[in-house]
Every structure is written in structure tokens, then in C-alpha cells.
Amino acid sequence: MIKQSIITIATLGLFTVTASAYDTKGCVSCHGANFETAKVFGSESRAVKDMTSEEIVVALTAYKDGTHKGSKAMMMKGQVAPMSEEDIKTVADALGKKAEEKK
Ligand code: HEC
Superkingdom, according to UniProt (predicted)? Predict the structure, then answer.
């Protein structure tokens, strides 16, 4: 019984961490409720809603490894730091869908 509770708690904990890493709620304060904002904070950024999943993966990966050349790249470096490669892919798939559907 006790063992099962511990497993349940551990599983819940894992789920919370995973869910928050994929959660894009924190992104909208800068990118707009529907990721429609371009030139966020005076940068050269595109509206994320118009980007394909692949473009989003490329951008987020570059922010993460520090190779992105955007003038405000530092702001995104902090955002993607806690994200795993898998998280980036999940977020990119979810956000990039709309642009791909328009094709
Ligand atoms: C603190 C404000 C802020 C938050 C929060 C934020 N971003 Fe950004 N984002 C920016 C800025 C500023 C840029 C442009 C940086 C540059 O100069 O390259 C950017 C750029 C991007 C780009 C690249 C756009 C392009 O044209 O290539 C993507 C994709 C992106 N953000 C996705 C996200 C996602 C997904 C999240 C949430 C996990 C997020 N952002 C959270 C400020 C933010």
C-alpha cells in the first residue's frame, strides 16, 4: 500500500514536470495569445503561428545551443534552457500545425 502511494506520487511528480515543460502558456505573454506577434521586443522574429514545425525546431534548437543570431536571442535562450529535445519537438509540432495546414 505504502509502496503504491510512493509510486503514485512519483508518477504525478513526473507528469507535472513533463506537462509544464510542454506548456506554452508562458510563451503567450511575449508572443501573443495565438502566437501572432512578430518582431517581439523589437527583434526580427516572425509570428510563430506562421512558422512550420521544422522552422520552429530549428529556431528553438539554435536558441538552446547559443548559435541563434537574433538580436534578442538571449531572451529565448532562457525560455528553451529547461526544454529537452523532445519538449522542443512536441511544442513545435503543436504550434507548427497551423502553418502547415495552410499550405
Ligand atoms: C520573455 C519573452 C518571451 C517568452 C516568454 C518566449 N519568447 Fe519566444 N521569442 C522572444 C523574442 C524576443 C524572440 C526573438 C529573439 C531573437 O532576436 O532572435 C523570440 C523568438 C522565438 C521564436 C523564433 C521566431 C523566428 O522568427 O525564428 C520561436 C519559435 C519562439 N520564440 C517560440 C517560443 C516558445 C515556444 C516559447 C515558450 C516556450 C517562447 N518563445 C517564449 C521572446 C519570448
Answer: Bacteria
Q: To test ligand 1's pocket by mutation, which of 24, 68, 76 has the most ligand atoms within 8 angstroms of CB? A: 76
Q: Which residues line ligand 1 (CB under 6 A)?
A: 24, 26-27, 29-31, 40-41, 43-46, 48, 51, 56, 59-60, 68, 70-73, 75-76, 79, 91
Domain, as residue range, for 64: 2-102
pLDDT at 1: 66
pLDDT tens, position by position, 14-69 = 554 444 446 899 999 999 999 999 999 999 999 999 999 999 999 999 999 999 99
DSSP output for 71-91: TTHHHHHHHHTT--HHHHHHH
> Rounded to the nearest 5°, which phi and psi values hold at 82?
-80, -5
